[in-house]
Design a protein that fits this description.
The structure is a single chain. The protein is an all-alpha fold. It contains 23 helices and no strands. The longest helix is centred in the middle third of the chain and has 22 residues, at 149-170. The relative contact order is 0.05. The model has no long low-confidence stretch (mean pLDDT 92).
């Protein structure tokens, strides 16, 4: 846009003349995209509520023409949104909530968490759902962020949101909103001391909800938090029990990729405390869906776990006879730690394997 036009819209966005709003509303209908975007930005800088309501209600947020303008909001429009959330009626709050999610307004997560502590503010489900949706979107951006200024800004935003959610999670009794714990898990980089402290306190209001999420949630961030406990010397028995009892494929895959060989002394100790592994009940169905690396890790986990040796031998035999080449080699090596007629029979069968390294 030419400099004279920039100066014009800058003046329209800041002048005390309220007639500027009407001019900007007409400019929103211009056939020139640059003029429409400049008019939108100027409207958001205005102090008048009616200008902001037009942006909130009438702008098509799915239109590419507007999306860049709606990512970073002028201070006046941010203040309008905050006022609507704090003092607006339930319908107004719902409108703002939809806007926040559509435009990725992650900086509003701390305010949403704070508002959830006031049980009288409605609709709570909209506030909680908005917080959760924003955390999910931000978590996805963190996962795919690579390098550069944009990635740095995403990481900085995630850290700020994480700090706010840490405080909110520790104040769980004030709001009892599971979405705050879900959001914190979605943005966690793995093991967190806060999660350990919550689980260690039987009377903590968030304890049962956190354990439930660790038992059921399949997001990669939550699974990383769960599996990272294997690397912690002070991992609670409740968490190890969850690792023992989960059998869903997303969890199993994450577990198999998170356990690195050679196993550390801490991981070995925790695995040895696991007297059963629920996913072994469906070994026949799971094994074909795993790749070579995953099948090999499965063998390592089972032989170092506390499951009965006969059960471990069954798993080794299954991989040795039906697994992929690399996994069969791992199973053949593991077979050296077993004795008896069944182990000897498996060793004889391994000698006829088409892979010479298995033989």
């Amino acid at each position: 846009m030419h400099a004279p036009w920039e100066k014009t819209f800058d003046w329209l966005g800041t002048t005390g003349n309220r007639a500027a709003v009407e001019l900007l509303l007409r400019a929103l209908k211009s056939g020139t995209p640059q003029i429409r975007r400049a008019a939108l930005l100027a409207l958001m800088r205005r102090p008048e509520k009616n200008a902001h309501l037009v942006v909130l209600r009438d702008i098509d947020r799915t239109d590419d023409c507007w999306q860049d303008c709606l990512r970073i909001l002028p201070g006046a429009f941010q203040e309008f949104l905050r006022d609507q959330l704090v003092h607006g009626d339930p319908h107004q709050r719902q409108e703002v909530c939809r806007f926040l999610v559509d435009t990725d307004q992650f900086d509003f997560v701390p305010l949403l968490a704070h508002l959830l502590e006031n049980r009288k503010i409605q609709p709570r489900d909209a506030l909680a759902g908005t917080l959760q949706a924003l955390c999910r979107k931000l978590g996805t951006l963190v996962e795919v962020a690579s390098a550069g200024n944009e990635a740095t800004q995403i990481m900085r935003t995630a850290e700020q949101v994480r700090r706010a959610l840490n405080i909110a999670a520790d104040r769980y009794a004030k709001h009892e909103a599971p979405e705050i714990l879900e959001g914190l898990l979605l943005l966690s980089a793995g093991y967190s001391r806060l999660f350990l402290e919550i689980i260690r306190q039987p009377g903590h209001a968030a304890r049962s909800v956190l354990l439930h999420l660790l038992s059921t949630d399949t997001s990669s961030a939550t699974l990383k938090v769960l599996c990272d406990f294997l690397n912690q010397a002070d991992a609670p028995q409740e968490v190890l029990r969850i690792i023992s009892q989960r059998s869903d494929l997303p969890f199993l895959r994450h577990l198999l990729h998170s356990v690195k060989t050679p196993l550390s002394a801490t991981v070995r100790r925790h695995l040895k405390s696991l007297r059963s592994l629920k996913w072994l009940d469906n070994l026949e169905g799971l094994l074909p869906s795993l790749d070579e690396t995953e099948q090999s890790a499965l063998v390592e986990i089972v032989v170092h776990s506390g499951v009965p040796r006969q059960e471990a031998l069954r798993v080794v035999g299954k991989v040795l006879t039906e697994g992929l080449a690399g996994a069969r080699r791992t199973a053949a090596e593991a077979l050296a730690d077993f004795h008896g007629a069944e182990a000897n029979d498996l060793a004889l069968r391994a000698m006829s394997d088409p892979d010479p390294l298995v033989q």
